[in-house]
Amino acid sequence: MLYFAYGSNLNHFQMKRRCKDSKFIKKYNLKNFRLTFRSKYRAADIEIKKNSIVPGGIFEISKSDEKKLDIYEDYPILYKKIYLEYYNKVLMTYTMVKKTEFRYPTERYFNVVKQGYKDCGLDSKFLLNALKEKF
Contact at 8 Å (CB) between 72 and 18? Predict the structure, then answer.
């Protein structure tokens, strides 16, 4: 299965620890979404926004990896799954169920995501912009 990561799961060390079968395939820009941080956990989330993009990474994951991610993402309470089309394949990602207001991420969490941006070769300006784009 193909999984789109955009937050702390971009971090290759963390992703391998969580999902031992996972393989990073490539970086990918998810169109018409934007990155934000919210909830009491101050975690990454995506929401629809026209003409915006969320850089992320596509990983190949096994069924057992998906079950582990479901637990980690507190599915279906905190995050729900959405399925996108990617070159006639299905690409799964998570998005928060409740769209609460923006909350600054903790420094520790932000640094894990920042390292993930490096691991996947993503432009960190999108990550920094997500901190500025409060409502």
Answer: yes
CATH code of 2-128, in short, is 3.10.490.10
Specify the 3-state DSSP secondary structure of 122.
coil
Distance CA 19, CA 63 (A): 10
Compute the distance between CA of residue 32 and CA of residue 73 in angstroms, rounded to an integer. Answer: 23
Look-up of token digits 């909350």: 103
Question: In the chain, where do the E strands start and end?
Answer: 2-5, 23-38, 43-60, 79-86, 89-96
pLDDT, tens digit (0-9, with 9 covering 90-100), for 38-91: 999 999 999 999 999 999 999 999 999 999 999 999 999 999 999 999 999 999
Burial class (CB in 10 A: 0-12, 13-18, 19+), 52: middle
- Binned at pLDDT 50, 70 and 90, residue 132 comes out as confident
Domain boundaries, the chain: 2-128
What gap in Å lies between CA 109 and CA 118, rounded to an integer? Answer: 15
Q: What is this structure's pTM?
A: 0.97
